[in-house]
Amino acid sequence: MKLVSDALRLGCFLLSAPFKAVHWASFKVASDVIDWHPLELLAKGSKYALLILNQPIEFTKSTAVMIWNRASIRATVDGGTNIWFKFSEGIENEIGLSNPIPDLVTGDFDSAETRCLKYYQEHGAKVIHTPDQDETDFNKCIRELSTELVARELKVNAVIAVCENTGRLDHILSNLNTLQKARDILGSVPLYLLTHSSISWVLHTGRHRIHVDDRVIDQHCGLIPLGQPAYVTSSGLKWDMDCLKLEFGGLISTSNKFTDQATVTLETDRPILFTMTLPPWK
Description:
Layout: H1 2-16, E1 34-36, E2 48-52, H2 61-70, E3 73-77, H3 79-88, E4 104-107, H4 114-122, E5 126-129, H5 137-152, E6 158-162, H6 169-181, H7 183-186, E7 191-194, E8 198-203, E9 206-211, E10 220-225, E11 230-235, E12 244-246, E13 253-257, E14 263-268, E15 272-277
Parallel strand pairs: 1-9, 2-3, 2-6, 3-4, 4-5, 6-7
Antiparallel strand pairs: 7-8, 8-15, 9-14, 10-13, 10-15, 11-12, 11-14
């Protein structure tokens, strides 16, 4: 029965696509293609919101300060408040940190130190207690951020959460769950997970173009189904897929690689996680 169900779902997906899009060749361009420019995400003039989660910051000081300074709005999430406080303490004049005070500090505050909360509140941060235990602090922060963006009439093109993929596995999986749920809160504004060496985000159902450059030739990327199987077709990767079923318990596309192609095209019938190695930020 499972095989029949998969075949029916794939058949419906193919029949619902325009005829020219069935094979998803790289030259096919449709009005509903979503373009992604991950290597330009932190460029000067980018409009993004920045979240600091409760993981050690492994960027160099200069890179971390660059990411912080260029953000349009900044938030620390519970224990991430301690992380940022200790990281930024005493470096304002050392390497050009323009303003170390976050705009928002959120969480149930089971990890944030009282002295950090007090200091930031006294220096103008909006401190918001979010005690609901049915959602993670990360998820609740996104809700508060969304409200704050509306209140400020501030538009951003992305929300970037700084969080290394280390420590407890359940925390890592929870962060991926928030990635998938974020669209219900942020709408069309994408949420990214950023580490010192990688970036990850969700590609929802449809067609996508990921624009890269020669800095990522032979660098790794991965395509991971989220919660349910996904049929994926790609071009521009070392190991391309042709309507390939990705699922846990079957095949998932880890340790794939970029080629010398400047654009990777993808189509998926279900949400997938796209993760890629990053070159040094400029």
